[in-house]
Amino acid sequence: MKDTNKIKIIGKNGQKIEITEAEQEQRKKIKKVNDEFKKINAEKSKMINEKEIWKYFFEKPKKNYNKYMCEMLEFPEYLMYNNESVDSYRGKWSEFFQNDNNIYLEIGCGSGNFTVKNAQKFKDRNYIALELRFKRLVLAAKKSKKRNLNNILFIRKRAETILDFIGKNEITGVYVNFPDPWEGEERKRVVSEDLFSRLDIILKTGGKLFFKTDHEQYYEDVLELVNSIDNYKVIYRTRDLHNSEKAEENIRTEFEEMFLSKHNMNIKYIEIEKVK
């Protein structure tokens, strides 16, 4: 039998409302959870202020911070966010990884599923992945630590800054998976003439750019762009990656998994080689 007894309470805006006792209990539970979250967030913000981590991301201190900022401190072997430290390894990433293995770069790695799976599969390669969001960086670091990987690093940097921290001919491969197509603002796209001008410097001859998208026009535009650049060529392309000869070796991203479960649309894929 449903609880129909009504009680009067004062709402957030001072208005009088009637709710059941069950609803009141539910409100109390929600308030308790929210209060605990606020307390935890306040403690995290205090820690961030005490350690002055905010200086790496903001010009002046704030009252509240993203709680994952502080958690990044727990993974120094997997996360790097201090620009000065990151830039100091330009041309010397083999020293960081303590080997001369090929280095692969992912631009916009999300919470790291793709890069982590690659690092697990190819232990003789090193991986650097770029991401801006604190939560995604922490989740990626947790996955790496859980698997005890020593060939992976996540950096909080934008793609347009890669020349600041990647040296000449230092990268063997670059992954760009499902970037924003920026419809109507195509000049903001990651895969652009500007990106190729940077790849001219950091990518080895014979190195590759791997591109995935669910966007037909982006796929077509990238093919057209590569055809207009002398020192790059398309060595593989498909409009249906999951039904191609590359399907078995394909490592899926978080977005790819989600997209395939909700939509019946083909994934487009291009491999581009730097020929000189």
Automatic annotation (TrEMBL):
Residues reported to bind substrate: D214, T253, E254, F255, E256
KW Hydrolase (keyword) present: no
Key words, A-Z: Coiled coil, Methyltransferase, S-adenosyl-L-methionine, Transferase, tRNA processing
Record keyword Methyltransferase present: yes
Similarity comment: family membership: Belongs to the class I-like SAM-binding methyltransferase superfamily. TrmB family.
Function: Catalyzes the formation of N(7)-methylguanine at position 46 (m7G46) in tRNA.
NCBIfam families membership: PRK00121.2-2, tRNA (guanosine(46)-N7)-methyltransferase TrmB
Protein name: tRNA (guanine-N(7)-)-methyltransferase
Species this chain originates from: Leptotrichia hongkongensis
Name of the coding gene: trmB
